[in-house]
Amino acid sequence: MSVWRGRDKSQELERLAELAGEASAEAAMATATAEALEPPAPPAPPDLTAAAFFDVDNTMMMGASIFYFARGLAARKFFTSADLAGFVWQQVKFRLGGRENKEDIKTHRERALSFVAGRTVQELTDISEEIYDELMADKIWSGTRALAQMHIDAGQRVWLVTATPIELAAIISRRLGLTGALGTVAETKDGVYTGRLVGDLLHGRAKAHAVRALASREGLNLKRCTAYSDSQNDVPMLSVVGTAVAVNPDGGLRDVARARGWEIRDFRTGRKAAKIGVPSVLGVGAVAGAVAAGMAYRKR
Question: Where are its TM segments located (predicted)?
């Protein structure tokens, strides 16, 4: 019986990952289409079947975007002490146990989303613009940015792929002059957040589903595409493209990259990991740490 339950749960998680990927691809296309209305820079001759996909946390940006986002939201009083207490307790459980309980992740992920329930998309977008300017603009890795520009100069589209909210991801992409972004999609109704996710966080296998879904919509040949990431959690995404590059890799990804012959780029001074605030893994532990740091920032 337990075997069947485990299989059912695995199938449900895969279904949520697929839903998250499809929703992210749809939102990415809609955002990129809207932004394309702005006068673009003179393009290079287009390479229509190739593209590059960049993870954000510790790959394009020093540290985790959700950490900076939480700091910005906390400074604007999105969180209460009761919210903080719940997240900190989950953080303690995660750190002591060394693993994340899927049911706890679901519960606390939904609690995290309650912070935006009832808020408008426009409000969160405006706030995200401010947070980017305040806390993120000077955290971009120049080496990774140069890699993205290399693809742009070759006439290829360049997409960010991140578990951070799609609204914030789109802003980061636009500020960097990229094509668009795949990110976590929160459900909305009439322009207002409901407090629920569409599918799941865009994390792990969900990123691979999103890249496949976008490639199908864009007519991309994945064998001609390139993906960049720092995390072992992104091996599914790195594995669906023809060229995978480990950027500032964690130990797990470095081992996988060496075993598979993937290129490794490290822009960290002295090869020292630049983990700012919280890990790039957007599990409960990361969100809890971000909220805690944000609250501390607000109280200073």
Answer: 276-297
108 in Cβ contact with 290 (< 8 Å):
no
HEC profile for 253-283? Answer: HHHHHHHHCCEEECCCHHHCCCCCCCCCCCC
pLDDT tens for each residue of the chain, 300 residues long: 555 555 666 777 788 888 877 878 888 888 765 554 444 555 567 899 999 999 999 999 998 888 888 888 888 888 765 655 555 555 455 444 444 455 555 555 555 566 788 999 999 999 999 999 999 999 999 999 999 999 999 999 999 999 889 999 999 999 999 999 999 999 999 999 998 888 888 989 999 999 999 999 999 999 999 999 999 999 999 999 999 999 999 999 999 999 999 999 999 975 444 443 333 333 333 443 444 344 343 444
By annotation, the residues acting in catalysis are: 55, 57
pTM, full prediction: 0.79
Domain 10-79+115-276, architecture per CATH: 3-Layer(aba) Sandwich (3.40)
Closest CA to 65 of 163, 167, 204: 163
% helix, strand, coil for the chain, step of 5: 55, 15, 30
